[in-house]
């Protein structure tokens, strides 16, 4: 089992009420369980955010490399719209 460390936290009244209600309602045995689950959820959400950030950074770096190597086209909004319409048409069921 993991080593346990005691911490004291301060919550706004609204959050404290939510924690107490979860315990009183029988969803959790203690306030500590509520906080531990919230931290597990935060940890997972944070890991996903970091993965998304790394992916975006990789895309930005690829774009900057393409730009530096001259692999770019002039921006043409009409070409992009037409390509989008074709993609959408190929995905939509025929009526």
TrEMBL record:
<dbReference type="GO" id="GO:0006355">
    <property type="term" value="P:regulation of DNA-templated transcription"/>
</dbReference>
<dbReference type="InterPro" id="IPR002145">
    <property type="entry name" value="CopG"/>
</dbReference>
<dbReference type="InterPro" id="IPR038296">
    <property type="entry name" value="ParD_sf"/>
</dbReference>
<keyword id="KW-1277">Toxin-antitoxin system</keyword>
<dbReference type="InterPro" id="IPR010985">
    <property type="entry name" value="Ribbon_hlx_hlx"/>
</dbReference>
<protein>
    <submittedName>
        <fullName>Type II toxin-antitoxin system ParD family antitoxin</fullName>
    </submittedName>
</protein>
<feature type="domain" description="Ribbon-helix-helix protein CopG">
    <location>
        <begin position="5"/>
        <end position="43"/>
    </location>
</feature>
<dbReference type="InterPro" id="IPR022789">
    <property type="entry name" value="ParD"/>
</dbReference>
<comment type="similarity">
    <text>Belongs to the ParD antitoxin family.</text>
</comment>
<dbReference type="Pfam" id="PF01402">
    <property type="entry name" value="RHH_1"/>
</dbReference>
């Amino acid at each position: 089992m993991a080593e346990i460390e005691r911490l004291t936290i301060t919550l706004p009244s609204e959050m404290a009420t939510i924690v107490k209600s979860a315990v009183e309602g029988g969803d959790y045995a203690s306030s500590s369980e509520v906080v531990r689950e919230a931290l597990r959820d935060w940890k997972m959400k944070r890991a996903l955010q970091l993965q998304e950030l790394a992916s975006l950074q990789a895309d930005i770096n690829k774009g900057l490399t393409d730009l530096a190597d001259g692999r770019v086209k002039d921006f043409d909004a009409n070409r992009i719209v037409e390509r989008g319409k074709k993609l959408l048409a190929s995905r939509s069921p025929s009526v």
